[in-house]
C-alpha cells in the first residue's frame, strides 16, 4: 500500500472529489437502520421511498428541472449510454445518425464506436484550437435521419465550455434532440436545463462531492428512450432494479450543498486557479495554456511545458496529486485525443499538466504547488541543457 505524503496537495478535482462531510452524514442512517426497500408499502419502505424522492428533488433543483424528469443511474457513463443507445432502433440501426465532436469523453466516443460497428451513422465534428465546436458545423451535419446531437458541456481535460445553448437553438429548428455530458460542469458552474435547451443531460456524482457509483440522467418531457435494462417499474421503467437509496441520498445531499455554495465556490476556485496560472506563467518561459482562456471551468488549468513530459514533471513532485490528461489515461504516454483534436503539437501536448482545484485547496497550497512545479521544471530544463 502506497503511503501518502502527509502534506500532499490535491489538484485533481476533475478526476474525482472527496465526499463532503454533509453528504456522508446524510447517507449514514441509510447504511444502518433505514434499510427499507423503497417498493415496500410499510413504514420502513415508505421511509426509503421518501428519501429517494427527496434526493430526486435535490438533483432537479440544482439543474432547474422538475423532479419527475430525473432518473438515478450509476454515474455519467451509464447515463451517456442510456441516451446514445436509447435513441437507436436496433432493428434498423443504419437508419440512425448521431452527431458528436472529437473532444468528447471516452464515455461518449467508445459507445459510439460500438454503435458504428452495428451500422449506426456517426459524424464526429472537429474543434478549433481552443477545443470548441462550431454550431454552424453542427447544423451542416444534420440529416433527415439524425436522431441525436451529443456535445459535452465542459471538457474534462481543458475545462473548455462548449456552446451548447447555441447548438440547441440550431437543433430545435430541425427537431433534433440534444444530449450533453455535463459530468464535469454540474457543481462547478451554473447549469439550467431550460436555459441550455437540452433534451438529455448526464450527471456524475463523484465530480461534485458525492460518492462514486452514482449519477443521474435528465430527460425532457416528451422525449423517450429505450431502456438499457428491462425489469420492473423502478425509475419509471427506465432504470429498473431496486433503488440504491444510500447513493441516491448522497447525490441529493451533494446537489443541495452545491446549490448553496455554487456562487462562492465558483469565485474562490477561479481565484485559486488564476493565482496558480499567474505564478507559473510569470516564472517560466514558453509555458502554453491548453483550452479556452476565458470560456472554461473556473477550477481548471491545463498547461504544457514544451519538450518536457508531464508525467516526468509530476514524478518529481510527489506531494502534488494531479493529472497529465484525462484521469482514465493517467498511465499512458499517448498524446491526449483532446489536445490532438485541438491541433496541439506533439512536443507541447506531451508536456501537458491538468491542475484542477476544489473546495479543500487553500491559497497557501496553491502557492506551494507553484513553487514545487517551478523548481522541478527548472531542474529538468537544466538537466536537458
In CATH, what is the homologous superfamily of the largest domain? Answer: Type I PLP-dependent aspartate aminotransferase-like (Major domain)
- Please outline the major beta sheet: 7 strands, mixed
Total number of beta strands: 12
Task: Walk across the major sheet and give the strand order.
Answer: 2-8-7-6-5-3-4
CATH class of the largest domain: Alpha Beta
Helix content, binned percent: 25-40%
Mean pLDDT: 95
Query: Architecture of the largest domain, according to CATH?
Result: 3-Layer(aba) Sandwich
Strand content: 5-15%
Can you tell me the number of structural domains? Answer: 2
In whole angstroms, the N-to-C terminal distance is 37 Å
Radius of gyration: 21 Å
Q: Which runs of at least 5 residues are low in confidence (pLDDT < 50)?
A: 326-330
CATH topology of the largest domain: Aspartate Aminotransferase, domain 2
Shape: globular
The H/E string reads EHHEHEHEHEHEHEEHEEHEHHEH
Structural class: alpha/beta
What is the count of DSSP helices, taking H or I runs of 4+ residues? 12
